[in-house]
Specification:
disordered N terminus, globular, alpha+beta, 7-stranded antiparallel beta sheet, 5 helices, single chain
Length: about 180
């Protein structure tokens, strides 16, 4: 037995010696829902003219787990989704009150809604979340002729991570108390 082997414990939790295997740090459904409720921005990745691209967008998750994004006709995300509805959405806890580092990426199918009967109710649901001080002012601002909303129906969570499930802080330091 080498001196290095003697110093290492026989069993260890992820984050004690290394972070090679993060399978125990995957987020469960409740943690995923908490992240979606706490965060207001996500990175939406899509194909445009066959090439990958991405934008940061504000969003709202509805009761069915669909993600809603407001945008304008003609923007790259609208053009890309019109060409190919496959998207990836990545959400992190950066800027939220959730402790540790949390993230999830999901694949889904996106639909661009242009019908005002769908667009304006979605804008009204987004407004209190994105402009809590004056939701009606936000609705008026977004009530424009070219306004559309993108609905993403997730098909699979491809990655998730919650550093509070690891020993320490996941970067070799002391742990963060789990909320």
């Amino acid at each position: 037995m080498t001196p290095e082997a003697e110093e290492m414990p026989a069993t260890s939790r992820p984050g004690e010696r290394d972070i090679e295997d993060l399978s125990s740090a995957r987020m469960g459904m409740a943690a995923q829902q908490a992240l979606l409720a706490a965060q207001t921005e996500a990175v939406m990745s899509f194909l445009q003219d066959g090439e990958p691209t991405a934008v940061v967008m504000s969003f709202l998750a509805d009761a069915e787990g669909h993600l809603w994004f407001a945008t304008v006709e003609g923007r790259r995300q609208v053009r890309g989704i019109d060409q190919d509805p496959r998207v990836t959405v990545t959400v992190s806890n950066t800027g939220t009150d959730l402790p540790g580092r949390r993230m999830m990426s999901l694949r889904g199918r996106a639909v661009v809604h242009r019908d005002r009967a769908v667009v304006m109710p979605a804008i009204r649901r987004l407004a209190p979340r994105l402009a809590p001080a004056d939701p009606e002012a936000f609705v008026r601002l977004l009530d424009s002729p070219g306004r559309v909303v993108i609905e993403v129906e997730p098909t699979r969570v491809t990655a998730s991570h919650d550093s509070t499930l690891l020993a320490g802080d996941g970067r070799g330091g002391p742990g963060v108390e789990r909320a």
